[in-house]
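Deliverable D4.2, example record:
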Amino acid sequence: MAARSLAVFGVVLAVCLVFTAATNPGFVVRITQAGLDYAHQHGITVLQKELAQLKLPDISGDFPVRHLGKVHYEISSLNLRSFHLPYSRISLVPNVGLQVAISNAFAEVDGNWRVKFHFIRDHGSFGLEVKNVYIKIDLKLGNDASGKPTVSTSACSTRISSVHVHFSGKFGWLYNLFYNAVESRFKKILERKVCDSVVSSVSGDLQRYVQTLPVTAKIDAKAGIDYSLVAPPMATAQTLDVDLKGEFFSLAHRAAVPFPPPALALPPYHDRMVYFGASSYFFNTAGFAYHAAGALVFEITDSMIPKGVEFHLNTSTFAAFIPQLDKMYPNMLMKLRLSAPSAPFLSIAPEGISLQPVVDIQAYVIHTNTSLTPLFLLSLTGNVSATIDVKSGHIVGNLSVGRMKLSLKHSDIGTFQVRMLQSIMNIYASSILLPRVNERLAEGFPLPLPDRIQLSNILVQFHQNFLLLGADVHYTPRERR
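Output generated by the structure prediction step:
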């Protein structure tokens, strides 16, 4: 029994460890207090406009006057002329979400009134001042089944300290009999209506906007990026962290990534509004996805040789290094097929990004009927470094190749000195292959940004196993038609 219990415990522990490892994000978005304050400014502007459009119901009632009977009053055509939110703040609530506190808000309402008291009838207009309005809104953050972020109002309270009605008319003593009842009813109606409007605005406009955060981003015909949330956003005392899967995948066939994401802990920076942490896992899944999609294949023909390069891709050029070519295939065009035998794997350290890709180079001779005959297979290894930047909301890169090493894997034309081909292969790689790769990297990969967000004041730093990007944001509201 003890052995069985121990085995069960071991299985449960193993499952827990697997799920713990699987939840490590490949990409983290961190919003600082500065970023929340900026978002809060735009949110309060929207909320103020929403509150200014509140529809208030007509009210009526009977107010008893001691020994005199009842005063019947009707309040109609209520118009909320303005609603101002001059002081507000947004706060992080650790492990819960966000809290918005609004103080000293005020509003102005006007409308019509009608009163009946025995044989007295009167009507007119009125103005109502609402002062010292306090609103507290608790926002709960989460994620849905598709990995998109969610936001909802977990609590809302409104407290109004002062409501004062100004009636116009000739029976001032009569209005004094019931204005307290009118003010009290206005207070209760506004307190309820304000929170109703907040809940509607959050579940409508705000929820729709946060859901514009892309869960998947198609990059090209071969691959996409999975930016789904792996856990609800986590609020700390100073930041809001959003953990994303951060995984490239092949569009044709999505396969399980054979390596786990490392732990990703961003440094406690606060100078920028938002920070992005892209782990080595994020970049290495790109290599895995493109390799799985068969996209890491590149062919070089003589027509692709840039002007000014003396070495043409034909047997006459290679005969200087491989004499037997001139006898076997005199003055014939050649083709080089470059492919990665395995997915490239990069490393990120404080010094930067580096990788040592391995490229197979299969050389063919091209016959007049366009058929190909294999000549030899080379293996090319080299040291590659990368520079990273952010442009138009995309991570862009540029590769630089250092020392390369060539070796012979197979030959169909007999033995030859591979060392003699080193220079010409370096030229082909640096003048043809590398520019094509950098051209693609210059297009970049999209960052997970909601609609109408632009980045500025970019920071790029390298840390152990992850790249840190920092930025300030600018939001462009949608024009209302």
